[in-house]
Amino acid sequence: MASLPDIEKGGRDGKEGSEMPLLEKKDDSNGLYMVFLSSAIAVCGSFAYGSTVGYSSPAQSPIMEELGLSYSQYSIFGSILTIGAMIGALTCGTIADAIGRKGAMRLSSMICTAGLMAIYVAKGPNMLYLGRFLSGYSVGILSYVIPVFVGEITPNKLRGAIGSSNQLFIVAGLAASYVVGAFAGWRTLALFGLAPCLLLFFGLFLIPESPRWLAMSGQEEEFGAALRILRGPQADISEEADLIKENVTSLKLLPKVTVMHLFDKANIRAVIISVGLMAFQQFVGINGIVYYSNYIFQSAGYNPTVGSILFAVIQVIVSAGTAILIDRTGRRPLLLMSASGLLLGSLLIAMSFFLKAHELATHLVPHLAIIGVLVYIAFFSIGMGAGPWLIMSEVFTLHIKGLGGGLVTFMNWFGSWLVSYTFNFLMLWSSSGTFLLYASMCLLAIIFIFKMIPETKGRTLEEIHASLRSN
């Protein structure tokens, strides 16, 4: 068995094999140990993603008080993460294709560490802005490369469950930032965010690169060694290896990929599926619900900090259940159930605003609103949270995954920004109308999923790609 440093460096450096005994101590007879370890290390980046996004909420009052920031200055601090993430999304595919999935994750962990340290030492707004921008840029890359890496290393029978752990650890990081932020200062909270970044950085030295990326980059010996480590020494990898090599060989015969190739007949369905699903993930109004939740909890007499923690914990619990169910039920049923639940939650919130505006059954208004929010977030976590990222990691062939995945990730962050930006304007126009608009997007999402999304459960990536090209 080749050592992991040899795999990562093309097998040319025989001096660095110190990590090999750590791997050989473990019994890989079930062929899954290294897949679980690799995925666990990768989703440290997902935890960093969640804790970074969640940082601005608990840190708002302490930062504004200590550094004397105005509301407009803190708004810039909060929103500049999205700008950084959109730029990261535009470059994530190119970076992951050029230096590998591990290389992209390692680079992102370094940038995120630099961003959090800039926030920790900040004495004024400019350093805060720099730190938040760097953190956002790293999150933009991580949001693409983690589901891609996990999808490429995982056996098809477990791809849904392990792939869903990406969303699980995002919401776990979000919950952790709320909990820690309720008891610790904003500088301590920034240091807390370093932990998953460091775990990711050093953990990557213990795991192999994506075999599919190694095959695509022409490193055939390293490809075989990485696949052997991931499947275990006793596993028969010949069939899977031949399938991957055959697919890669056919892809290398194609001309150099440009943006226009995304719209070729062979690729357009994958683009429509993944971009459309990611657009609906945002346009059903998830960010509006997140921002409005504190107001709902306050209006119902609940502590908004406690409400935020409850909000995040529900996401963790439901996301964990989704990871268990997704390879049993399939992607389509969970996505359809999720979109239907989002429709119900949006209608309940819209009804609460309507009753409040017309002073009808006012005693029911806060309870309807809270039930609506909790229904919404629970059903979002069932499918529309993890599903679009999982589908994105499955439908693109290797040669266009960088461009296609970058486009999908950009759509995610652009949609996030657009919903956040327009939410207050829509609420000024009509509170009930805002959530009826989100409900209509949920209805369109149901139709889109039913008509366009294929079931990918239990199929290899190569089988999924061949099916999409043939339709």
TrEMBL record:
| Superkingdom, taxonomy of origin | Eukaryota
CDD domains linked to this entry: MFS_GLUT6_8_Class3_like (cd17358)
Instruction: Enumerate the GO terms in the molecular function aspect.
Output: sugar transmembrane transporter activity
Q: Which UniProt keywords apply?
A: Membrane, Sugar transport, Transmembrane, Transmembrane helix, Transport
Q: Which GO terms describe its cellular component?
A: membrane
* NCBIfam families noted in UniProt: SP (TIGR00879)
Return the protein name: Sugar transporter ERD6-like 8
Q: How does it sit in the membrane?
A: Multi-pass membrane protein
Q: Which family does it belong to?
A: Belongs to the major facilitator superfamily. Phosphate:H(+) symporter (TC 2.A.1.9) family. Belongs to the major facilitator superfamily. Sugar transporter (TC 2.A.1.1) family.
Q: Which residues form the Major facilitator superfamily (MFS) profile domain?
A: 38-457
For the region Disordered, give the residue spans.
1-23
Q: Which residues cross the membrane?
A: 32-51, 71-92, 104-122, 134-154, 166-183, 189-207, 270-293, 305-326, 333-355, 367-391, 403-423, 435-453
Subcellular compartments: Membrane
Q: Which PROSITE patterns match?
A: MFS
